[in-house]
Write a structure and sequence with these properties.
The complex is a heterodimer of chains A (209) and B (618). Chain A is an alpha+beta fold and 209 residues long. Chain A is built from five helices and ten strands; from the N terminus they run ββαβββαββαββαβα. Helix content of chain A is 19%, strand content 25%. Chain A is globular, with a radius of gyration of 20 Å. Chain A starts with a strand and ends with a helix. In chain B, a hairpin with a 3-residue loop joins strand 14 and strand 15. In chain B, helix 14 crosses helix 15, helix 15 packs across helix 17 and helix 17 crosses helix 18. The chains are: A alpha+beta (209), B alpha+beta (618).
Chain lengths: 209, 618
């Protein structure tokens, strides 16, 4: 038996369901009658592009100065790891680190009632637009005009499809959680606020896990 | 919701010794290794080899979560060293099959489970060199007398696998339903216990069948040609066109495959028509028997028990999908009579009566269907009400059963008319009768279809879900998902609950369970199992209780053999015919393939057994 004292984040403690109490874990099947899943709020919020084939929508922002359901962040992304949010002052310190880039994170809800966060990469300030980024922003604009949209193609740029179902038939079911609540759930232990965070060591020296 | 917080997570892996052949219990573990992470992020590596401690060193009484990939393998190692299964486990193989159910079954009903390397690849997680993995696996499998250096090498490899599992867990974690995953984890471990027990096979009748199978199949092909009056088999090769001609000559409509739009004699299409057309029933039953006999390869261990991989989550509805020629329950129902309890023992089959209709009644809340289901035979009740008679015939019941199930499966009037040998307008009239009798069910089915059509996931009680991909007409195939998918969730819960109650399950089908116990205890075990089967339905279906059927004839005690209900209905005719053909192929004598002195004694025993087999159940 060997004990290592290096930190392994994001594993324990962990809360799971009790398999001896199946009745309390069963998903109420009355959701089959509705167009949306049961009202329970998911304990998991993903920060990723909405999956292909899933219709989703976003809320338009009423005021340009006080956004409710979107915000700009610096995001650090590494293969094989969930993304991290980096505090602006730290991102500035690490401006040569190419795993960090500015994104606009937008809250969305699927037709099934699952909420998520969509990180949209921004076109660089040099004026050279990227087809992926531009097409994603176009889909965002379409979604915020009270439409159910889905991403259907991933060749050269995102393509989309709009559902014939209007909001009158399938109203979007955003939960009462705030945008910040969702950010906290999605990035619980992955907000980098200091220069001694373990991720800098991983980026500099690598990791065996 | 009942939750348990675990301060530690343990990633486990094990390697076991030489594979002793198909159908055997797994070998003794060469090593069992684990990486334990505590809440301070401290990591402890455990490298164990024989002699193993009485319990795992990481099991210290407080709640901890065990994580592995395809935990059935580790379950085998635990059973070998006498450790209890962990109370809380997550199997990333099972989670992968659930999370990726939709994309894995695109265009088909079944799915192939991933390897650990493949799963890592899917999540962009650093894996391991494939060649190194193969080397280590063969080092574990090809011998039993490993040197201390080889054991140390295998322990290193086990720890590497554990690290890979840890990386995969981190990547998959946002998508894992942590509340329900431990039920699947417990199920994945319990199916190994079921496999280890195995299904007892009567080798005295099975071995001759296996050895003479191809010759018997050849004779059955000739007989079938004679019965159908056509060369459906030409030089032992099946000719589809000849079967279509037979069907046309006898006024039997040729089914059309919904996907290819071409004439088809696929088993699933023909099966729906056999109750209407006796000739087709002959063909269907004989063809299944011929196919099985041609390639009879049950995986049977030296102790005469059939052990096979259940292939859990192997279909889009989450049902198990075991091999059709290596697992007894994959063979035609006639051949289930190869199952026979050993001396002093008994086997019982407990099944959910009319499971799919019961689930449809529970989920839709249709009061008429609920009442019909609770009266015992919903199809008979519907037939009686629709026809205005008290006691419908078996054939009338069959017609109304086909309509109820057909509607649940999304069949249209045209397909029903073909299956039942009636006109489309007659089929439509019966469907209208059904809509009038069960309006709530009808409206509910429509809503499920609409939901599927909008690519909204249809989710079952423990989280198994499927999403339409947008192909036109695809939504109809989603109609039976709430029934079959929830049926598969029930099966998993029953297996976990039965294990906790100490009941010895030795096999299961979609909606039925086989238990084994001593002759003295079997009745008590059956009663306990029936209560578990009912409880599982109450737990998952909001209090609605499904029936747990087990008739006296569903319990067999040594020296009797198991007989499937359908075989009982025909007085064992198919079984007796099979035994006769095998006997004739063996120069009129049943064969004994043992050597030496045992052969003579065996000869007499086989004669006796085959005689009993032929005259079984009266």
């Amino acid at each position: 038996m060997t004990t290592k004292l290096h930190t392994v984040d994001n594993i324990a403690p962990i809360t799971v369901g009790d398999p001896n109490d199946v009745a309390s874990l069963a998903i109420d099947q009355s959701h089959l009658e509705e167009y949306a899943n049961p009202g329970s709020e998911s304990a998991v919020v993903e920060c990723a592009r909405p999956a292909k084939g899933i219709f989703f929508t976003v809320r338009a922002e009423k005021s340009k100065s006080r956004w409710q359901d979107r915000a700009f962040y610096f995001m650090l992304q590494m293969e094989g790891r969930d993304p991290y949010l980096v505090a602006p002052e730290i991102a500035k310190e690490k401006q040569d680190e190419d795993t960090i880039r500015p994104v606009m994170i937008v809250r969305y809800v699927t037709m099934a009632g699952d909420e998520g966060l969509w990180p949209l990469k921004l076109n660089p300030p040099d004026g050279k637009a990227n087809a992926w980024n531009t097409s994603a922003l176009n889909i965002l604009e379409l979604a915020e005009s009270d439409k159910w949209v889905r991403i259907v193609g991933l060749k050269k740029h995102y393509r989309h499809q709009v559902s014939n179902k209007t909001f009158a038939i399938v109203p979007p079911k955003f939960t009462d959680r705030t945008f910040q609540d969702l950010i906290n759930i999605a990035f619980k232990d992955r907000i980098v606020k200091t220069l001694d965070h373990e991720i800098w060591d991983v980026l500099e020296n690598g990791s065996d896990n | 919701m009942s939750e348990i917080t675990c301060a530690r997570v343990v990633f486990i892996d094990s390697e076991f010794d030489a594979r002793k052949g198909q159908g055997e219990r797994p070998g003794f573990p060469v090593c069992i290794c684990a990486i334990e992470i505590d809440q301070d992020g401290r990591e402890t590596e455990h490298r164990l080899a024989a002699p193993y401690p009485a319990r795992p060193p990481w099991d210290r009484g407080d709640p901890f979560l065990t994580v592995g990939f395809a935990l059935s393998a580790e379950a085998g190692s635990f059973l070998n060293v006498g450790w209890a299964f962990p109370a809380l486990a997550i199997d990333l193989y099972a989670e992968f099959m659930v999370i990726h159910n939709t994309e894995m079954t695109r265009g088909g009903d079944s799915k192939q489970g991933p390897t650990l390397l493949r799963a890592c690849q899917c999540y962009g997680v650093t894996g391991m060199d494939k060649a190194h993995k193969e080397d280590m696996r063969s080092l574990a499998y090809t011998k039993t007398d490993h040197t201390p250096e080889e054991i140390a090498l295998l322990q290193d490899y086990c720890i590497e696998d554990g690290r890979m599992t840890m990386r995969l867990f981190r990547a998959m974690r946002p998508r894992i339903d942590l509340m329900r995953a431990p039920i699947r984890g417990a199920f994945m471990m319990e199916i190994e216990r079921i496999r280890c027990r195995g299904i007892p096979i009567d080798m005295l009748t099975y071995r001759p069948a296996e050895q003479r199978g191809p010759a018997v199949a050849s004779r059955m092909r000739e007989e079938l040609n004679r019965k159908l009056g056509a060369q459906v088999y030409l030089q032992n090769v099946f000719k589809r066109a000849a079967l279509f001609q037979v069907m046309q000559r006898n006024g039997i409509p040729v089914p059309v495959d919904g996907k290819t739009r071409k004439a088809s004699c696929a088993r699933k299409l023909i099966k729906n028509m056999i109750e209407t057309y006796p000739l087709l029933k002959h063909y269907y039953e004989d063809k299944r028997m011929i196919d099985a006999l041609t390639n009879l390869k049950l995986e049977i261990g030296a102790d005469g028990r059939n052990r096979f991989w259940l292939n859990p989550f192997g279909t889009k509805t989450g049902r198990n999908n075991p091999s059709t020629n290596r697992a007894l329950f994959g063979l035609p129902h006639t051949m289930r009579s190869f199952m026979k309890p050993p001396p002093g023992m008994a086997i019982a089959q407990i099944d959910y009566g009319c499971q799919e209709v019961g689930i449809a009644a529970a989920l839709s809340g249709d009061p008429a269907l609920i009442a019909d289901y609770r009266r015992g035979d919903p199809y008979r009740e519907f037939a009686a009400a629709a026809l205005g008679i008290l006691d419908p015939t078996q054939q009338q019941r069959q017609v109304y059963k086909a309509v109820v199930l057909g509607r649940i499966y999304g069949m249209g009037a045209g397909t029903l008319a073909r299956n039942l040998g009636i006109s489309k307008s007659q089929a439509q009239r019966i469907m209208d009768q059904m809509a009038a009798r069960y309006p709530v069910l009808n409206a509910w089915l429509d809503r499920v279809t609409t939901k599927a059509a909008h690519c909204i996931p249809v989710t079952c009680a423990l989280g198994l879900s499927l999403t339409a991909t947008g192909r036109p007409g695809e939504e109809r195939t989603f109609l039976n998902l709430p029934m079959q998918g929830n049926g598969s969730e029930l099966m998993r819960v029953v297996i976990v609950l039965a294990a906790a109650a100490g009941l010895k399950i030795i096999g299961c089908a979609h909606d039925s369970f086989l238990i084994e116990d001593t002759i003295d205890e079997i009745d008590r075990s059956v009663a306990a199992m029936q209560e578990i089967v009912r409880k599982a339905s109450r737990d998952l279906l909001g209090g609605f209780e499904l029936r747990a059927d087990c008739k006296p004839e569903d319990i067999v005690r040594y020296p009797d053999r198991f007989v499937d209900k359908r075989e009982r209905e025909v007085g064992m005719a198919h079984w007796n015919r099979l035994m006769t053909l095998i006997s004739e192929e063996n120069d009129g004598r049943p064969a004994d393939y043992r050597h030496g002195d045992a052969a003579e004694e065996g000869e007499a025993q086989i004669q006796d057994e085959m005689g009993k087999a032929r005259s079984a159940v009266g």
